[in-house]
Amino acid sequence: MSEKPLVANKIFLIVIDGGSDRPVNGTTPLASAFKPNLDALAGSGINGIMDTVGVGVRPGSDVAHLALLGYDPYKYYTGRGPLEAAGVDIDLKRGDIAFRVDFATVENGVVKDRRAGRIQDTDDLARAIQEKVKVPGVDIIFRRSTGHRAALVLRGKGLSPDISDTDPHRAGLPIGECRATAKSPGATHTAAIVNSIEKQIMEVLNDQPLNAERKKKGLLPANAILLRGAGDVPELPDFHKKYGMRGAVVASVGLIVGIGKLCGMDYHAVGGLSEKLSGTTAAEKIQRSIDELSTHDFVLLNIKGADEAGHDGDFDRKTKFLTDMDEAFKDIGDLRDVLLIVTCDHSTPVLVGRHTADPVPILMHGIGVRIDKVGGFNELIAYEGGLHRIKGLDVMPISLDLLDKEKKFGA
Amino acid sequence: MSEKPLVANKIFLIVIDGGSDRPVNGTTPLASAFKPNLDALAGSGINGIMDTVGVGVRPGSDVAHLALLGYDPYKYYTGRGPLEAAGVDIDLKRGDIAFRVDFATVENGVVKDRRAGRIQDTDDLARAIQEKVKVPGVDIIFRRSTGHRAALVLRGKGLSPDISDTDPHRAGLPIGECRATAKSPGATHTAAIVNSIEKQIMEVLNDQPLNAERKKKGLLPANAILLRGAGDVPELPDFHKKYGMRGAVVASVGLIVGIGKLCGMDYHAVGGLSEKLSGTTAAEKIQRSIDELSTHDFVLLNIKGADEAGHDGDFDRKTKFLTDMDEAFKDIGDLRDVLLIVTCDHSTPVLVGRHTADPVPILMHGIGVRIDKVGGFNELIAYEGGLHRIKGLDVMPISLDLLDKEKKFGA
Fold it and tell me: Do the Cβ atoms of A57 and B398 come within 8 Å?
């Protein structure tokens, strides 16, 4: 008889972003990839399929990660803007309205390129916007993110997130005028502010030497910004208070970092947010996560790369990414006292090119886990596993229970 | 790189009414039937079991079909009457109260036969009732359906569906007096109207030459009607608006046609509503459905026959029906761009003789479906499939996702 319960005491949750797929000629990238290490973890763990948000619900990465962390997205999700803003280290306050921003190229009011020729170095542009754009009574926080991306936050009284995007969501359409989407003075007021900011930003960007240089080089200028995903700050209960576990997030994607930070998790950058991912960096991130596990009880690791290949419809690249990534999973099954969870946030099938609701595979590995007969990690066999078909919101309760941290209902 | 998502763009939903069962000596009609075509579809598709309405909930065909089409029966179902009435082409208006009607034989106020000797040709009787029965301030619409069945609709101000059936639901009991089941002036008013109509109809029917003839031939006269399932018109959102898909329903059962029509689906009769079904007519209906698929995005096909055999407790007849039906499933797996779904609306076990809540088997077949290891279509093996255990309301979201028509939650 053991005096002390024999259970894991830390959780390592690894999310292979968009790794799940639909079959092409009977197989999928996860099923085709050579990944002996990940398959061995499945073979010595329990497996299942999971609807991260709901059966038939297509999740964005944001709502899927919220659910995996135990935050019901139907209750807490307020839009992507604030999550992105938190991810570029803007310290959000209650009442702030945050937006996702893309630098874009606009000609005669029509969007020519929604990514301004995939511009990379936007430091000067962001600085100029931050310095020069003013609206009386409203604080404006503008910060660049990776590539053509940025975040904008409005801080002031009586602001509302009930406004339309200025992003027309497709090239060839006019840049949108921001309109109130609810009948409230706050929404009308906020829409007017956004329209003023859009106009000022176009003037500021037109004067930027970088854009003159880009034109000379035959590159598209970043002469406008497109706003979308307006939201107020979600009130996410603190992760540590909620679970009694100190959490850290490891990710190279601002969105995931932002979710972690808004939950009160710690974050250390891995190679900078603009880093392009590869098998090598998956290994680096796993190593960083293992380091974080020495000082934290919970680590969320997001591995990006498969998702992009899925969006691009590239089966071979997605398979290669997963194959390359596998080396990083060597030996992590030996981590002492760690409940290891490997899953995906959603499917991004190469046949579809966007997120779908197809359930994702999930494996759990560690002390106390009932080992099932599933011998590999992929969406074509995971359904045969001992977890059956669970939901994203089930992951934390199951994990806390395995760690002997779940409270009893009844007596 | 795929330009266009490679997904199915039409849905063919085939419901084998009451086809599911409980085991008798270890097997079921679906498991015993020789049905190589249907089994091959299961073998090259994904399978599961389904609670059409809820775990342990015994569904009528009506609520089960509503759920399969994505209409929550707990929200939308108002009774069987209006669905039957819509199925015999009565154009229902908001505020109408509709009833299921059976022609019956009554002696000294006691129901002798609830189906009037399974009378078939009720044209004259229905016409006489429509012409002669009058209630001031209320429009009465009476229309025959198949066999001994008919539908009655009351149209007027202040009517209520909160009234009792006049059908005692068993022979040997007195015909019921209609009573208000809620304390409302409308219910009392409507009950009084129904009792007046019942009385008038008995007088009209007593004078009908057809009944005199039947008595001469030793047949039971249709000298009364039994009313049940009173309901007001359900407000079903339009199927096309809801899903962006043009729907058609193919069925020889008024109830299912009525559901389709109330959802705004198109309908073409298959051999007349009174047609008796057999393997041959299943083939005809599948052919009709395939024709409808050329001009519609969604076709609901209901195949009746197994259900009756289940109600009659006839294992061999149910098995034979399913065997005979199978030929019709040949080649439908080759339909281009079609997501094929085969399921049942409920179990009608031969050991029980009525609908039960035992989950039904479901298979999905088409582009993008994850093929599982299940090799046949029956309720004893379907649980091993990749869908696991879903609900009727899950069918449309899963299908729309497979067709790339589901919207994303989050970003």
Answer: no
Task: Tell me whether A389 touches chain B (CB under 8 Å).
Answer: yes
A351 contacts B6? CB cut-off 8 A: yes
Per-residue pLDDT tens over the stretch A196-225: 999 999 999 999 999 999 999 999 999 999
pLDDT, one tens digit per residue, over A39-54 is: 999 999 999 999 999 9
Q: Which amino acid is present at A17? A: D
Number of alpha carbons in the 13 Å side-chain half-sphere of residue A278: 4
Q: SS in 3 state form for B186-231?
A: HHHHHHHHHHHHHHHHHHHHHCCHHHHHHHHCCCCCCCEEEEEEEE
What does the alpha-carbon distance between residue A22 and residue A118 come to, in Å, rounded to a whole number?
A: 29
Distance of CA B379 to the CA centre of its chain: 21
Contact B406 A356 (CB under 8 A): yes
3-state SS track over chain A: CCCCCCCCCEEEEEEECCEECCCECCECHHHHCCCHHHHHHHHCCEEEEEECCCCCCEECHHHHHHHHCCCCHHHHCCCHHHHHHHHCCCCCCCCCEEEEEEEEEEECCEEEECCHHHCCCCHHHHHHHHHHCCECCEEEEEEECCCCEEEEEEECCCCCCCECCCCCCCCCCECCCCCECCCCHHHHHHHHHHHHHHHHHHHHHHCCHHHHHHHHCCCCCCCEEEEEEEEECCCCCCHHHHHCCCEEEECCCHHHHHHHHHCCCEECCCCCCCCCCCHHHHHHHHHHHHHHHCCCCEEEEEECCHHHHHHCCCHHHHHHHHHHHHHHHCCHHHCCCEEEEEECCCECCCCCCCCECCCEEEEEECCCCCCCCCCCCCCCCHHHCCCEEEEHHHHHHHHHHHCCCCCCCCC
**Dihedral Cα B128, B132, B134, B140, nearest 10 deg:** 20
pTM of the prediction? 0.92
Say how many residues make up chain B: 411
Conformational region of residue B70, where left means phi above 0, alpha means psi within -120 to 50, and beta covers everything else: left
In sequence order, the 6+-apart residues with CB closer than 8 A to the CB of B122 are: B103, B144, B148, B150, B222
Q: Nearest residue on chain A to B398, judged by CA atoms?
A: A56
What is the rounded average pLDDT of the residues B25-34? 98
pLDDT at B280: 45
Q: Judge whether A350 and A309 are in contact, CB under 8 Å.
A: yes
| Residue B170 sits at the chain A interface (C-beta within 8 Å) | no
The mean pLDDT of A231-259, rounded to a whole number, is: 94
Residue located via tokens 């569906």 = B161
Whole-Å CA distances, B206 to A190, A324, B109:
75, 85, 13
Q: Which chain B positions have a beta carbon within 8 Å of A57's beta carbon? A: 397, 406, 409
Tokens describing residue B172: 């040997």
Q: ipTM value, please give it.
A: 0.91
What is the pLDDT at residue A303? 93
Q: Read off the DSSP letter of residue B392.
A: G
Q: Among candidates A301, A390, A357, which has minimal Cα distance to A21? A: A357
Of B1, B7, B385, the CB nearest to A313: B1
pLDDT of B273 strictly over 60: no
Q: Provide, as residue numbers in chain A, all residues whose Cβ is less than 8 Å from the Cβ of B391.
A: 55
Cα radius of gyration rounded to whole Å, chain B? 22
Residue A289 has pLDDT above 50, yes or no: yes
Cα–Cα distance, A60 to A54 (Å, whole number): 12
B139 contact A CB<8A = no
Q: At what angle do helices A123-132 and A185-206 cross, to 10 degrees?
A: 130
Check CB contact of B55 with chain A, cutoff 8 Å. Answer: no
pLDDT of residue B274: 39
Across chain A, mean pLDDT equals: 94
